[in-house]
């Protein structure tokens, strides 16, 4: 049985004349964590934005190739991008809660979907915060402004906000790079605890993080996918010399 929930074939992304991704073939297995690693500027964020069509918002960006999610071409003409982004949630590098209460942050997407009744919202808000491993810290402060919490707490509130709309896939672009080590570790634990229900793709600069939490790792360099393998196998025994050099800190 094919477990691949995302299949991307020959994905090229141009910013104007400049080709930033040179034909990426990369598949993602359902309910696994895949790490995207590689030096700054190699195309990790660009590739991630292909998966939820956020590059659509960059006027000079143009993609060729195909990306299928659950066997549906997400760039087909009839695709509703709002529906796609309900299925594919994104958590960004800087925690970016809205400047209102914890409750209203997590309920935000649900309200957009027309669920207005607080009695209906409350249990979903609670379960999302529990899933994001932040409930105990915020349960007595649900009406406090989300911005009053620490960076690590804000990031887990943002994860809860993403989980509330029940995406199938969660994209995270260096979600812990702005956090201290303890907060980063908490976010990592959150990801490990939810992966049985979600397919997670995480861009990370942190090789230890990739090796701690991911099942598979994709190494990008200069807009190309250099190596893609089981994380343990790649870290122990990279096949490509460039992967080996990168993992050993020879460039970064
Ligand atoms: N909006 C943009 N317009 C033009 N070039 C861009 C844009 N975003 C990224 N790039 C370029 O595309 C390449 C890949 O960038 P990016 O995907 O951000 O890499 P990474 O996330 O791996 O650091 C870089 O050369 C970067 O300068
Ligand atoms: Mg990036």
Automatic annotation (TrEMBL):
Domain ABC transporter intervals? 6-247
Name the UniProt record assigns to this protein: Phosphate import ATP-binding protein PstB 2
Q: Which NCBIfam families match?
A: 3a0107s01c2
Instruction: Please give the superkingdom of this protein's source.
Output: Bacteria
Q: Which Pfam families match?
A: ABC_tran (PF00005)
Q: Does the keyword Zinc apply?
A: no
Q: Which InterPro entries match?
A: AAA+_ATPase, ABC_transporter-like_ATP-bd, ABC_transporter-like_CS, P-loop_NTPase, PstB-like
Keywords, sorted A to Z: ATP-binding, Nucleotide-binding, Phosphate transport, Transport
Q: Name one GO cellular component term.
A: membrane
Has UniProt tagged this entry with the keyword Thylakoid? Answer: no
Any single GO BP term: phosphate ion transmembrane transport
GO terms assigned for molecular function = ATP binding; ATP hydrolysis activity; phosphate transmembrane transporter activity
Entry's PANTHER family?
ABC TRANSPORTER I FAMILY MEMBER 17
Q: Can you name the source organism?
A: Philodulcilactobacillus myokoensis
